[in-house]
């Protein structure tokens, strides 16, 4: 059961007044923050009977019991007091172990700082890196929250479109380099990427790092889908190329991470920042003055996830790979979609012949196919003409969603 | 048990490099954020055997079982997915009911937005109200996190000292008015106040509101200790005067709230903002782009707190009142402290004759009395010469702490 199942009728509550003069006292850059374009279609379709919701970046599996039990045990044991602003030492050690076995890092707990979500990790990374008047380079289309968090910090996102061709999305290094100005302070790179499925090669990472070094920029590395990588045979050790493979000590890279995807903990809001330990006090202060830490009992769940969760993660990845093939093969077979199977993350990002207004297409698909997809326009420049479909779900549901989408495509896609 | 009991030796981990050139790329206003002055003494004394820790703003009672059980039940039931950015509708309704019975408000769930801590509520309120170059007026001494969160937003806290006399701390309305400049955007008022125990009268609130109206300022009202009020006979209905008593619809007041104190949920990090519903979309965006919501299962615990917690809250307040009298009477009887019994919150804020360097006094009291107090300097201008003692604890521990402090005072206070 999700919280949505028990929503009282008539809620969310009354609509907002958009241009009310009451809002004039809100700071401009905050008032200008965009509403999430994913939420719009979710709110439109949320309560439809039989709806298959493939719009959000989350799977359909609740958090596994061994994680819930670790948290509940700590909660009942009274771990309900203020705790370490940088995170429980035990959790920082568990993260260090996890990163050592997954990325071959030296095991150094000083590098890891527990945050109240991957989103908060991004928020804190951006707070360190940028302020009013600065620019952040973001390959686009991209998950919109990074750009919005930069705007919230007073900075301006500078979008550099991915190249797009028969092999899917790729980084355009010339355009990236050309986007650097004297106001640029950071490059935000998400790989494997939401929504495109783009995965940076080692050479891509070396080029971005060289660019950042040349201009004295921060890199904010969002590798949260690093385990969801289909570019090589699967297995527990498989993972996408990472800045960890190419960086040196002394590079200015801030890694943002989350428990949401690997361990089916989207609703928990727990993540971490990985950074040079010299940033420790700054990060601690930013945590202190934004949320003052993460519940200790939730952190006990996170320790269980890291220490006992590898089999679960492997299942999740195998399931996503299967889901990707199931839906992508069915859609491609219609000949009516522009779709390249993505090498990473858990989204298909594709165009439908003759349909360019994807914002209304999202609502149409709710009405006519009872399947929820997110419009590409929710992901910024370059997203026009695309729809995002999350395939991190079970076979039966994905087969039914494919059947509905194929039927809809064959009935109307050329209309 | 708290998490502190199980800290591995040698942690928190390595010290930070203060002026390392690596930090030069961190934005100045973020690098300049102060380390919490409370944390310093806590880290100094945290692991002393027998230490009585009265430095933090939290009691010694873990969250009551009925709240923990509501959360654990939801967790095991799979409420682990993304949820409403404004908070579960059920929780917003429960808050509206609580506010209606406590403050006589109309029951309007649209006014309430669930946040990941009272700290996050402050952070979001300040993000709406102030930006780079703005000023926020804060009566001082005060809980340092509000000022630090203003600095994080790029604004400057402008401290206006409380007046201090034989009746304790009071607002100096002339100095408040004189502090307004054309850069002022907000007044942050905490009442009942941490650390001073100051409680604004209805007349104080009317005067502050008039000032804010006159200059078009936001009021950020931190009334989280509103129930911890000793200015009238106790009872479930007792609470301090509130801006709710004097405001009109259309006033620009943002209330920040938390579950931490009333319901012994400091470690949970759940609070709320109360604001005009016209701010709903802006607040939703700020939540979306900072932490993306609060775990639904934790919110179920918060619903239980509001709906079933009144008896517990009444006990907490009665206990704090008793604790206040126990410690204050003992200290005052020595004749060696400058202490006025506070009418609200749960702190004594007092001076010790002949001791002006309170930062080192905090460490000395750890060493010589094995009692942990927070130095007044942690609370900004006006805090020099004072120590803060939290009395939200049980009789036995407070009696022992009083005994130790009295012995120390009588042995050394005139030294």
Explained architecture:
The structure is a homodimer of 415-residue chains. The relative contact order of chain A is 0.17. Helices cover 38% and strands 15% of the residues of chain A. A 7-stranded mixed β-sheet of chain A has the order 2-10-9-8-7-3-4, with helices on both faces. The first copy, chain A, has a 4-stranded antiparallel β-sheet with strand order 11-12-15-14. Chain A has a two-stranded parallel ribbon with strand order 1-13. In chain A, strand 3, helix 6 (144-152) and strand 4 form a beta-alpha-beta unit. Chain A has helices at residues 28-31, 37-45, 65-76, 89-103, 118-129, 144-152, 173-178, 202-215, 280-288, 296-308, 310-334, 358-369, 395-412; strands at residues 52-53, 112-115, 135-140, 156-161, 163-165, 168-170, 184-190, 218-222, 253-258, 271-274, 337-338, 347-352, 371-372, 374-375, 387-390. Chain A is of the alpha/beta class and 415 residues long. Chain A folds into 2 domains: 3-63 and 311-412, Aspartate Aminotransferase, domain 1 (Alpha-Beta Complex), CATH 3.90.1150; 65-309, Aspartate Aminotransferase, domain 2. In chain A, helix 3 runs antiparallel to helix 10 (296-308) and helix 4 (89-103) runs parallel beside helix 10 (296-308). Chains A and B meet through helix 1, helix 3, helix 4, helix 5 and helix 6 of A and helix 1, helix 3, helix 4, helix 5 and helix 6 of B.
């Amino acid at each position: 059961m999700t919280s949505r199942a028990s929503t009282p009728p008539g809620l969310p509550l009354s609509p907002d007044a958009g241009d009310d003069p009451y809002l004039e006292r809100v700071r401009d850059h905050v008032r200008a923050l965009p509403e999430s374009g994913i939420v719009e279609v979710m709110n439109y379709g949320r309560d439809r009977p039989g709806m298959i919701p493939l719009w959000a970046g989350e799977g359909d599996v609740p958090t596994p019991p061994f994680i819930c039990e670790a948290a509940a045990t700590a909660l009942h044991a009274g771990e309900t007091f203020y705790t370490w602003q940088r995170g429980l030492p035990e959790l920082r050690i568990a993260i260090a172990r996890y990163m050592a076995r997954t990325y071959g890092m030296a095991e150094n707990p000083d590098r890891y700082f527990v945050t109240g979500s991957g989103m908060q990790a991004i928020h804190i990374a951006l707070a360190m890196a940028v302020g009013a008047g600065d620019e952040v380079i973001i390959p686009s289309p991209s998950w919109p929250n990074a750009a919005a968090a930069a705007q919230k910090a007073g900075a301006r996102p500078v979008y550099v479109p991915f190249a797009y061709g028969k092999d899917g999305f790729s980084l355009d290094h010339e355009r990236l380099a050309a986007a650097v100005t004297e106001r640029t302070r950071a490059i935000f790179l998400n790989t494997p990427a939401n929504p495109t499925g783009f995965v940076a090669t080692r050479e891509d990472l070396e080029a971005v790092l060289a660019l950042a070094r040349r201009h004295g920029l921060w890199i904010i590395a969002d590798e949260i889908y690093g385990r969801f990588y289909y570019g090589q045979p699967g297995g527990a050790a498989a993972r996408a190329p990472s800045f960890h493979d190419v960086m040196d000590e002394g590079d200015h890279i801030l890694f943002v991470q989350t428990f949401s995807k690997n361990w089916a903990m989207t609703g928990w809001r727990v993540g971490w920042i990985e950074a040079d330990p010299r940033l420790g006090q700054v990060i601690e202060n930013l945590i202190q003055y934004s949320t003052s830490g993460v519940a200790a009992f939730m952190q006990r769940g996170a320790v269980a996830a890291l220490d006992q969760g590898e089999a679960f993660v492997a299942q999740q990845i195998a399931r996503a790979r299967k889901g990707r093939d199931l839906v992508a093969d069915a859609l491609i077979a219609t000949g009516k979609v522009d779709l390249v199977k993505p090498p990473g993350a858990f989204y298909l990002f594709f165009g439908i012949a003759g349909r360019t207004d994807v914002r209304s297409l999202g609502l149409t698909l709710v009405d006519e196919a009872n399947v929820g997809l997110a419009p590409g326009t929710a992901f910024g420049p370059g997203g026009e003409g695309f729809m995002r479909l999350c395939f991190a779900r079970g076979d039966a549901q994905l087969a039914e969603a494919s059947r509905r989408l194929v039927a809809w495509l064959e009935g109307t896609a050329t209309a």
